[in-house]
Amino acid sequence: MTTTAPAPTAGIPVGPGLSMFDPIFVGIDEFGQPVYITLAYRNLLAGGEPGGGKSGLLNCIAAHAALSVDSRLVLLDGKLVELGQWEDSADAFIGPDITAALDVLRRLQQVMNNRYAWLRAHGRRKVTALDNLSVITVLVDEIAFYSATIGSKQEQEEFVALLRDLVARGRAAGIPVVAATQRPSFDIIPTSLRDLFGYRAAFRCTTPNSSNIVLGHGWAEQGYSATDIAPTNQGAAYLIAEGGIPRRIKVAYLNDSQIAGIADYAAWIRRPGTLTTPTDTTGEWEMAA
Ligand SMILES: Nc1ncnc2c1ncn2[C@@H]1O[C@H](COP(=O)(O)OP(=O)(O)OP(=O)(O)O)[C@@H](O)[C@H]1O
């Protein structure tokens, strides 16, 4: 019996594997310098008005995660089409279904608890690149869809509680959350939740208050307001990293055919029997994923 993987067909590019512990290229700053983020231990919140370019940023991150040999993807996309092209690379792809969304978040919470039990047993505080564990990148496009639009009030509240727990505890356990909302208001993003996101990106906002809700209180008054961004400048945003000051960036945009090409390749390197696919897990406790 041969165990050799099928030979790649012509046209499939071959490149070194990325890691979720590597810096992720997300665009350029106002001086034309490349902008990187490191998601392994940080969450990211993207907020701004519809059409501002939030999904562009999420797709950029999804591309890196899909190409990372140590990453697994969990996608929640109420519109189905924003992250839909990554479905074949994802462990879970949830559409407009609150029951499925709650199921996957409960499961992630269990994996997180298992990972913390494992860390504690090893006298450790966080997972590292050397642990041979996959980083489970959770992308949510659009928080408000699950927390305020579909489902009963009780289901919406459970969604918010589970998301909050994941955002609060997931990063040290290798489960970062990247979430977008076109409704940057206190009811959707209360300060206590906002502050758990180490990276925050404010795309064009209509009021200084909504810009502040994403970036943090007082930044608009200091001259960093996403109301400055022209409606025609899609993909422009202020990005702040925990402890830093907002930086004006332009997100690297992948069009649909570029995404299709990357997603195809990512699905190919993730075919069963290779990399960290669900059939190839590294430990009993991780199988809970
Ligand atoms: N970085 C970018 N560079 C150039 N154009 C962009 C960029 N990002 C987005 N666009 C353009 O803006 C359009 C809307 O972007 P996108 O879907 O990412 O917005 P959004 O904020 O996610 O909107 P929604 O809240 O409705 O989901 C894209 O179809 C594209 O044409």
Detailed description of the structure:
- The chain has helices at 54-67, 98-121, 143-149, 153-169, 191-194, 208-215, 256-269; strands at 24-29, 34-37, 44-47, 71-77, 92-94, 135-141, 177-181, 199-203, 236-241, 247-251.
- The protein has 289 residues and is of the alpha/beta class.
- It has a single domain (24-282), classed as 3-Layer(aba) Sandwich (Rossmann fold), CATH 3.40.50.300.
- Helix 1 (54-67) runs parallel beside helix 7.
- The radius of gyration is 19 Å and the shape is globular.
- The site of adenosine-5'-triphosphate has 16 residues, from helix 1 and strand 10.
Short synopsis of the structure:
This protein is α/β, with parallel strands linked by helices and about 290 residues long. The protein has helices spanning about 55-65, 100-120, 145-150, 155-170, 190-195, 210-215, 255-270, and strands at about 25-30, 35, 45, 70-75, 90-95, 135-140, 175-180, 200-205, 235-240, 245-250. The chain has a single domain (about 25-280), classed as P-loop containing nucleotide triphosphate hydrolases (Rossmann fold).
Helix proportion of residues, in percent? 25-40%
Main beta sheet: 10 strands, mixed
Q: Strand portion, in percent?
A: 15-25%
Under CATH, the topology is which?
Rossmann fold
Distance between the termini: 30 Å
Uncertain runs with pLDDT below 50, 5 residues or more? Answer: 276-289
Overall geometry: globular
Mean pLDDT score, rounded?
Answer: 88
Tell me what the CATH architecture is: 3-Layer(aba) Sandwich
